[in-house]
Amino acid sequence: MNREEQKAFLTHLYQYVSENKKQKFDAVLQNRTRYITVAIEDVYQPHNASAVIRSCDAFGIQDIHIVENRNVYEINPQVALGTSKWVDLYRYNEKENNTMACVNHLKSEGYKVIATTPHKDDCTIQELDLSQKTALLFGTEKEGLSDIALENADGYVKIPMHGFVESLNISVCAAICLQNVSERLRSSEIDWQLTETEILDIKLRWAKKVVKNSEMHEKEFLSSK
Question: Which of 30, 47, 159, 200 is the most exposed, fewest CB within 10 Å of its CB?
Fold first, then answer.
């Protein structure tokens, strides 16, 4: 469908969407961004994977990039609480080195890839420069990021800690990082919001998820053209 057809189909679907839900779509999309994105490498505990999704939704991050080299990314619905249907998940699991496939894709889209690690002396999350589109890369629960991820990152960031522990659980780390960068982004002059085309595309996909038999509606709509 072209843009005008998408608008017409959205109008058609919106007949079956409650006013509260439509208002919620508008409010959420005003705070959604693709300026910041998240990439996670080989997370294997479903509750951690799901908590990262929940944090992305909470702080307005639309896209999550998932590297599956050894571990399949599984979602725990009791932790995600349905948030997985409101964000876009991109999986990298078809190549021998899926980490590089993800990193190369992000860089081709104009992202600066920043590895989160306590073992590299670069900057704290509060000091992270947000003048360029940024992808925050998180690693596994035990080993952290792979050497390949660290070697191909554009920079490194850490969370200041003042106790005996050297690292945090990935879901906690993601939440702290996203809260910081999302708040700084929203108070900046950076053009971080979604475009009108992106909003239309996402709103249409969301409407399909809440309207029963949306595929049938789409077939009938297209056949009438």
Answer: 30
On the question of pLDDT at 77 being above 60, the answer is no
The token duo for 122 is 């670069």
Give CA–CA dist 216/214, Å, rounded.
5
Q: Exposed, middle or buried by CB within 10 Å (0-12, 13-18, 19+), for 182?
A: buried
> pLDDT tens for residues 122-140?
899 999 999 999 999 998 7
- Total structural domains within the chain: 1
198 touches 76 (CB < 8 A): no
The answer to whether residue 98 sits within a structural domain is: yes
Which pTM value belongs to this model? 0.90
Residue 6 inside a domain? The answer is no
Q: Tell me which residue of 208, 204, 210 sits closest to 18, measured CA to CA.
A: 210
Range of the domain at 136: 34-211
